[in-house]
Write a sequence for this structure.
């Protein structure tokens, strides 16, 4: 049986959905590379996750140790070219077909051949996005519900 565990996840998009996806994965112990249009936005995304975790610690909802481990697992990066070792990547960018197709071409070029690519889209054809890659059978849709850290439902 093939090992399907994810040791390193790439999240493309540091907006509300991308931050939520990154937080949940990091909280589960997965190392997350968080990327956006530039490093400053990825850094700001990580800072917002930290502020949210700090708020949860302050309310007694999670332990400080868990918050610390979670934020340590999130590494902001400047480009998907740094996704060269990720097992799995999730795109969580604006709902724009041409933007997403361009992002999928970049992910396809950057990720190892065996990596899976996912999109969080709720309205764009997964088939159209997969066609932008050389690995259409390794592209899936994973529609997370908002807010990701609270909603435990995901459509695959």
């Amino acid at each position: 049986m093939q090992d399907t565990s994810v040791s390193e996840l790439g999240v493309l998009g540091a907006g509300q959905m991308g931050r939520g996806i990154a937080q949940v994965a990091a909280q589960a112990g997965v190392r997350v590379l968080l990327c956006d249009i530039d490093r400053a936005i990825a850094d700001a995304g990580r800072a917002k996750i930290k502020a949210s975790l700090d708020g949860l610690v302050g309310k007694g909802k999670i332990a400080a140790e868990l918050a610390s481990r979670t934020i340590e697992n999130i590494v902001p990066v400047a480009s998907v070219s740094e996704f060269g070792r990720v097992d799995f990547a999730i795109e969580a960018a604006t709902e724009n077909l041409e933007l997403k197709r361009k992002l999928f071409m970049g992910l396809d070029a950057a990720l190892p051949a065996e990596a899976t690519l996912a999109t969080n889209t709720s309205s764009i054809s997964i088939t159209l996005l997969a066609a932008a890659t050389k690995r259409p059978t390794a592209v899936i849709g994973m529609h997370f519900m908002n807010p990701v850290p609270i909603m435990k439902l995901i459509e695959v």
The two ends are 21 Å apart (CA to CA). The longest strand covers residues 8-12. The mean pLDDT is 95. The beta strands are 8-12, 31-35, 74-77, 88-91, 116-119, 139-141, 143-144, 154-155.
